[in-house]
Amino acid sequence: MNELNLPIYDPARTTIKNMRNKGFEWEVIIDRYEILKELVLDDKIDNEIWGKLVKEQKEVYENQQFIKRGETDAALVSNNEDNGCYVPLDSQSSWQLYRKKLKEKGLRKESIDQLEENTLKLLRKLSRNTMDTGPIKGLVIGKVQSGKTASMAGLMAMAADWGWNTFIILSGMIENLREQTQERLISDLDDGNNYWHSLHKLSKRTDLGQRTQNLNFNERAPHRYLNVCLKNKTRLENLLGWFKEDPNKLKQMRILVIDDEADQGSINTNKLDEAERTRINKLIIELVNINANGVKPKAQNYISYTATPYSNFLNESADDSLYPKDFIGVLPTAEEYFGSKQIFGEEGADDEHRLDVVRLISEEDKERIKDLHTKPNNRMPRSLVQSICWFLNASSIMRLYNYKKPVSMLVHTSQIQLHHINLANVITDWIKDTESNVILQLCEELYKKEKGRFSVKEFREGFPEYPTPNEELNNYPEFSDMKQHILELIKSISHIMMDEEGELNYHKGIHLCVDNSSNTGVNDENMHVRLAYPSSSKLKELGTAPAFIIIGGSTLSRGLTIEGLVSTYFLRATTAGDSLMQMGRWFGFRKGYELYPRIWMTDNTFDQFQFLTSLEEELREELKEYELGNKNPSEYGPRVKNSPKVSFLRVTAKNKMQNAIQIDMDFSGASIQTIHFENNPKELRDNIEVTEDFLNNKCGKPIKSKISNSLVFKDIDFETIKEQFLLKIHFNERSRVFNDIKTFCDWFEQVKDKEIFKNWNVIVSSAGQIRDEGRITSEKEWKVGSYTLGMVNRSAKASSKKYGKDMINIGVLRGPRDLYADIDKTNAGNEFSNAKQSEVTRIRKEYGVEDVPQLIIYRIYRKSEARNKSKEVDAPNKRIDLDFSNDMIGYAKALTVKIDKVDTEDIEE
């Protein structure tokens, strides 16, 4: 280890940085050594060490000039001063060795640089001495399978270079996932200046050589200790005993506790008015506040990582809890990541795109699956047959392209273990009993359909920012070239074979794995039943991509990485959104097989995922606003969209949201809009009459916007808007927020009394230029006062067909520039085309209208035509024409959050 990195030199570094900040040149700082020695420098620092420290700080300063803040979705809300850490530059530092490993794994330099920047931000929020201040507690939010483990490993590597010596990872509640995490982390962290030691199942009775008395936590020692511990009562109690065994060792430790999947197991689910906490929650709190007979560690830092943070925000926030009082960080998302936004789209987003990879399971097929769970037979539902055939197609393509890693299919239809066995038997029997030529025919028919439906062109439309050029994507081969690989796959289907020495052997057929907590892993026939991917040496020996069909429940819901996932059959019911999002094993990176993943699920489940996608994106946007507002996380936790009227999906389980304030995030900070419409002649006519009366008789005289083609009525009081418009308009039954419009009105009445918001501006959007006067010359025009406006064109999403002939979803109503229409500025530039909430907040604040709510009204032409048409019901980016009996009135509400004024504690339910 480079001795200059030791904390004993920190005061000297601070002196150098202070002098540099005051404008001293580097040569002058070196020359001042003799004077400084008499005044402030430690006796251990001689002239040579001083010179090295100045040179080191100069390199750091110059290196940091190249670290720019990119246009990412990262954010960091904090109440802490930065600790002054910087990126280690030594080639043998743990961080630089980790960078090298990431590069060897094929990560792009841009992604590694982004990880480095974010890791440094997190490290700077930690403390190397908490003996007087108490432990640091923070939260890091990632996305499901987006690289949280890479961030954890990076943070440990960089922290190790800065003197942290003890790393505890709390890893879920399932043992095989714990093992997977420990193996991955220790393989990612290479020895160099620091020596990494993997510790297992720690307790007072742990093996000699792993007890604290046998380990070296000395300040100058290069040893770094890593333990991955289950969130299990016995394991946690044993870990506490290990820490407390030797107080002299404990006080030498600089500890970093990383709570992986922190919304699982760590949350206190007992009622807050009960003295007894959930046992695991109590043990983790004891770990975070560890002491042995009054002796504390040198430093104690606790960081929780999760992709679904709702329970962390909505649960208790007392000082003695695990609430992230010190900072909340959001991990940036790599450009290559296939996440919920790419797969399900964000309903109502102005840049709505999604990949056309979801196929719907009919209600009839859903009932058939339920029958197969309890009464196995050969009547496989069509959707399950298709998902298996697609797995065979995709696996054969990947073998054809010489892909050598595992390829997988996931079947997740129930959490009941007997159902897993029954469904596994049905799938096995179908593959074995169906003639090979029939399977080939089914595969070919499906292949032709999928190849035509989701090409490279459609991929690029759905994921335009994906960094790999089209010509480098592995395109669809000819089916004739795939046949031999399909026949090779269906020739054999079995569990993983185990030899007499317990070694797993793999074949070129299909490995069927039933992965649940009741399986010990090996059956009576000495076959390994649970999922176990081959080691790198076994993969090399096999010479081709091994194929796996994995059937399971809770063990597949979190943490476990399903490698090469190309086909998912998903049929699970849940009312908790965080559980549902964690089940999305299809999220992640798909380098080399971008075109091939497919997912089968019900229409209702798709809607739930799309709802959660909007929630996830809004949460990230709101955290950016907190970052800009310099709010302390312990003063102001993000409000989560959690209205009781959203009955089809709660964001988290009720016992994990005991500190929640019943407030809908849409009401204060997000822009909401009507996108569902029904062809009901009377309601459409009523809405037009209400709107025309409201605009012509209740709002005064409008002015023309300088930003967009629209009229602006300024300074309209909320009582007029509520009584003359909101409570008179008919809303579609699928518009969840608008159907609860009275709750919104009550909420606004409460917050407006606190002078958070001013009177409203009403904006009426026009297609094309607004004429000051004159007659209507087309059925696409309408009058507002003396002005003639063009009706807007909004076609319907092709997926609207699933609602029936009289119901549509237009996807997006609002035009981005309309959010700025009431700003008084001429010659507006491109900055007024960005509809991201954080940018809208920034720009409206810049022009002094951040506290002015907006009501934006659109009259949609009843015969609007689509530009990008499709006949497919579930095609994501395709549109269909409108054919309504009358024009539609759509509107959007936009309320910019004022972080410095909103106090949710005063808002009643």
Question: Care to describe what's here?
Answer:
With 909 residues, this protein is α/β, with parallel strands linked by helices. The chain has four domains: 1-66; 75-80 and 88-330, Rossmann fold; 362-601, no CATH class; 661-906, no CATH class. Helix content is 33%, strand content 16%. The protein is built from 26 helices and 32 strands. The chain has an eight-stranded mixed sheet with strand order 1-8-2-7-6-3-5-4, sandwiched between helices. Helix 5 runs antiparallel to helix 7 and helix 6 crosses helix 7 (148-161). It is globular.
Primary descriptors:
single chain, 909 residues, alpha/beta, Rossmann fold, 4 domains, 8-stranded mixed beta sheet, 7-stranded parallel beta sheet, 33% helix, 16% strand, globular, nuclease, endonuclease, endonuclease activity, Put_endonuclease_Z1-dom
Number of domains: 4
- Class from helix and strand fractions: alpha/beta
Describe the biggest sheet?
8 strands, mixed
Number of strands: 32
Helix fraction, binned, reads: 25-40%
User: Superfamily at the CATH H level of the largest domain?
Assistant: P-loop containing nucleotide triphosphate hydrolases
Mean pLDDT: 81
What portion of residues belong to β-strands? 15-25%
Number of helices: 26
The fold-level CATH name of the largest domain is Rossmann fold
- Shape category: globular
CATH class of the largest domain: Alpha Beta
Show unreliable segments.
64-72, 265-277, 636-666, 897-909
Side-by-side strand order of the widest sheet: 1-8-2-7-6-3-5-4
Taking all Cα atoms into account, the compactness measure Rg is 30 Å
What distance separates the N and C termini?
56 Å
Named at the architecture level, the CATH assignment of the largest domain is 3-Layer(aba) Sandwich
Keywords: Endonuclease, Hydrolase, Nuclease
Domain Putative endonuclease Z1: 383-645
Protein name: Endonuclease
GO molecular function: endonuclease activity
